[in-house]
Here is the input.
Amino acid sequence: MAATPLFTCTCGVQKKTSNHWILAVTSAQDVKFMPWDAKLALEDHVIVLCGERCAAALLSRCLGDWKASEYAAVPAPVASAAASPQPAAAASAAA
Ligand SMILES: [Zn+2]
Here is the structure.
């Protein structure tokens, strides 16, 4: 018999079959929300959420973390003027 994995939201609610749960992945650079996927939900870095309210709470926590790390980290340059790839073919050589 297959064990039914138990999913628990960040708020402590446990998933039931009828719930419309969603998934989220966060990092220092982004936050991503995804539709429920039982396989994905088993992965360690994926956060399971019981609904929109907890998704909103997670988003706001991420924004807070990002803001906090802004003060700690030296701001990185946004535009990359130096690293623009040049096409191999330069000016057309006359035959
Ligand atoms: Zn929740």
In short: The pocket of zinc ion is lined by residues 9-11, 13, 49-50, 54 (CB under 6 Å). The chain has two helices and three strands. The helical segments are 38-41, 52-72. The chain has a mean pLDDT of 81.
